[in-house]
Amino acid sequence: MNTIARIGVKGLLATVLFGSTVFATEKKPLFLKEGVWRGVFTVNEANVPFNFEFKGKDPEHSVFSLINGTRRDEFKVKRVGDDSLFIKMNTYDAALFAKIESDGRITGEYRSLVPNFRGNALPFVAEAGKKYRFVEPGKDVKPAVNLSGKWELQIYSKEPTPNRIGLLKQDGNRLTGVIMSVVGDSRELEGTVQGNEFELSGFTGPSPIYIKGHINDDQSFTGELSLGIYNNVKFDGNKNANAELPDPYKLTYLKEGYKKLDFTLPDLNGKQVSLSDAKYKDKVVIVEIIGTWCPNCTDQTAFLAPWFKKNKDRGVEAIAIGFEQKDDLEYARYTLGKLKDKYGIEYDILFGGIADKKVASEKLPALNRMMAFPTTIIIDRNGDVRQIHTGYTGEITGNYFNDYVKKWNDDLDALIAEPVRQDVAIK
């Protein structure tokens, strides 16, 4: 064997050995352990726990599910590096950015994805295999009272704020429930009662909610409610089976002298749409004023979209007017398009402008004011506004939701059955 040949063999052998070493030490991408996890956000120096379940061996076949009592919200997972994940909060323009640590924990932040939005990120850490929310098993303290029932919550803030209602259910130390306001509900919350202290938290995609309170000797309680970083209010709570919120059908109404609603706004393709268009003539029309950033709006959409699909051939139309976090049609096409795809919306979606009640009031001048997202307006076959409902309360509110659905169907059935007035038809 000549010298060149010997060098070649040695070189080849070195390459094989070196290549084997590289292959043996190649870093294997990390992924989440399947099962239930416990995460903790840091919000205003408070620890706000949340639970989620992870299923799947790889991003293409995995599901990330947030757990809040009986509620489950599912999200897709995307790998953005060997040890990093991106979890988009579905229709909400926010995401969890997570890093998988060598010990199996994940750390990261909850961040807004709205362009040029200067919001604070919320850091979090999560550990696998921990199913509890606030208190480790075996460390519970006997509750002083049982908080099950309806509670009237008096809110204290710089500006006058209507009272809220808490619907709570306690089983031992475990506490679940929902907070209702004139604009909607908190979605399902989960927490604990320890002695004369209680805590509740909720995280479904929008900013996390955290409530802590102290039970007084007279069995009333005082507490503080935090929504994200900046929205914090204190409250007093008293059990009151007769407590009620203001009538949601009387909060928003037409100004004196108005019978109809009028607007001309672009759809997601930029085409101008008006209630005077032939498509809506002689139809019962449902106008839903929403924003993709608003959890009660997406809950309302989750109700309306399948209802419309089932009833669209009965002489009824619907329009969603979205007010988004950026006053830009291209951005709205993205956010509202995500909403359309997720819920299978088959009615028109228009863009109203920036997410601001004052702006919404200006775009819909017939209304006394835009009080809440969502607001739902029902118009009869003659073009007259017959009903306006402020806010939305979901399934977790029990009888409130059931009553809403019954009234919705009864009222829509009646309006659909009404004939068009002859004086209107002639025109």
From TrEMBL:
Pfam families: AhpC-TSA. Residues 254-410 form the Thioredoxin domain. It comes from the Bacteria. InterPro entries: AhpC/TSA (IPR000866), Thioredoxin-like_sf (IPR036249), Thioredoxin_domain (IPR013766), Thioredoxin_ResA/DsbE_sf (IPR050553). GO terms for molecular function: antioxidant activity; oxidoreductase activity. This is Alkyl hydroperoxide reductase/ Thiol specific antioxidant/ Mal allergen. It comes from Chitinophaga pinensis (strain ATCC 43595 / DSM 2588 / LMG 13176 / NBRC 15968 / NCIMB 11800 / UQM 2034).
